[in-house]
Amino acid sequence: MELIAARKKFFAAKRAEEQRNKPPTKAEQRKKMCTYMKHMAGYKDKDFKGKSFYAIKQMFDKAYKQVNDFVPMDTEKKVESSGKKAVSKKRAGDTVTIRSLATKYPIVDWKTHILAEDKMFYQIIRADASTKYYKIFHAMLNDFDRQDVLDLYRLLKERFETTSPEGYDRLL
């Protein structure tokens, strides 16, 4: 009896192992690909309706490559496809300037504008001549990264190297 019970367990384990090692069917693969694309690439169920297995496989390959090739903007690695310089394109008589998103211009100047005793705003000027205004100093610091803070600190030290900022209670 023990021999028969042991053989039953052995063959049950072997069948279970064969079942686990069996390659998935197309329906199972399709279900897994659809689930992945729903969670990772933002697809909906209606995007898969009426599509063949091969069409879904192509969509999956594209989404999988896009998710795996993603590079966060704050990394130091430069993406070659974004380009290193500004490019101009002509389209229907209009000129559109495309700039790389990876480019961050340093702060070259700042100004404090006082409207009234209790109302003021800060103007930050970058190297590409873009300007941004801030009403609240805290909002400016939330928008800055470490390099921006260091640039602003360097400018403050240069401006007040010989003079003292006394008398300014709300100096940038």
Automatic annotation (TrEMBL):
UniProt superkingdom: Eukaryota
Protein name listed in UniProt: Topoisomerase I
Organism: Tanacetum coccineum
